[in-house]
Write a structure and sequence with these properties.
This protein is mainly alpha-helical and about 220 residues long. It is about 70% helix and about 0% strand. The two termini are about 25 Å apart.
C-alpha cells in the first residue's frame, strides 16, 4: 500500500531533518525543538489566534527566554514558517528521489499529500496554505515566503514530468509547467479539505483520478 509507506517516510524524514542554526541568538534551549512546538500552534490555531502564552507552553519556554530569542510573535512565526518549509521540502525531495520511474514518484507525491491531509495531521493543516489565506494579503514578507514555497513545489513537479518524458513513463504531450501548476492547485486543495476534516475516505481513488493528469 502506498499511503502507509508514505506515512512511515514522513516520520523518518521529520525525525532526521535539521534546520540551520539561528545565528546570534541564545542557545540555552533546543531551537529546533522549540520551533516545532511553535509550528504546531500556528498550524492548529493560525497566526492571529495564537497567543504568546500558547507559544511559550508549546515551545517549553518562559516568556523571558522567548523575548531573548525573538523580537515578537511575528518573528517567532517567520522562524517557524522557515523550519516548516525546510522539513516539508526534505520530505518531498525524499519521495521524489526514490529509485522509481518518474510516474511512480509523482504517484507517491500525491499519496504523500493525501496522507498529510488525513486524520490529526490533516486537521492541523498546512502552514503555507494557512499563511496564504490569513496573512499573505497584508504582509509582503509572508507573501514572498508563501510564493517561494509554492514555486519550489511547482518546479519539483515539473521536473518530474520532464524526467517522465525521458524515461517514457509520462507521455511527451503532457506539458510540464502547466501540469505542475494544476498539481499544485490540487495538492494544496487537499490540505484545505483536510483541515476541514473532509479528506477522501478512499485515497486510492483520488490518486487514480489525479494521475489522469499525466495521460
Amino acid at each position: 500500500m502506498i499511503v502507509p509507506y508514505i506515512a512511515v517516510m514522513i516520520k523518518m524524514v521529520t525525525a532526521g531533518s535539521h534546520a540551520a542554526p539561528v545565528r546570534g541568538r541564545p542557545r540555552e534551549f533546543d531551537m529546533e525543538e522549540a520551533l516545532d512546538g511553535a509550528i504546531r500552534v500556528f498550524r492548529e490555531r493560525g497566526y492571529h489566534a495564537s497567543s504568546i502564552g500558547d507559544l511559550t507552553d508549546a515551545m517549553g519556554l518562559a516568556s523571558g527566554s522567548i523575548y531573548k530569542a525573538f523580537k515578537d510573535k511575528r518573528d517567532i512565526f517567520l522562524a517557524a514558517f522557515d523550519r516548516y518549509t525546510l522539513l516539508r521540502t526534505a520530505q518531498m525531495q525524499q519521495v521524489a528521489g526514490a529509485a522509481k520511474s518518474a510516474r511512480e514518484r509523482l504517484r507517491d507525491l500525491f499519496a504523500f499529500y493525501l496522507e498529510s491531509s488525513r486524520g490529526v495531521e490533516g486537521r492541523r493543516g498546512c502552514l503555507v496554505v494557512g499563511s496564504a489565506v490569513e496573512l499573505a494579503i497584508f504582509d509582503r514578507e509572508v507573501a514572498a515566503r508563501v510564493g517561494a514555497s509554492l514555486a519550489n513545489n511547482e518546479a519539483l513537479l515539473a521536473g518530474l514530468v520532464r524526467e517522465g518524458h525521458l524515461d517514457s513513463s509520462v507521455p511527451r504531450g503532457v506539458d510540464p509547467e502547466e501540469t505542475a501548476r494544476v498539481m499544485v492547485y490540487l495538492t494544496q486543495g487537499m490540505r484545505v479539505v483536510g483541515k476541514a476534516g473532509r479528506a477522501p475516505p478512499d485515497p486510492s481513488i483520488t490518486i487514480e483520478i489525479a494521475m489522469k493528469l499525466l495521460t
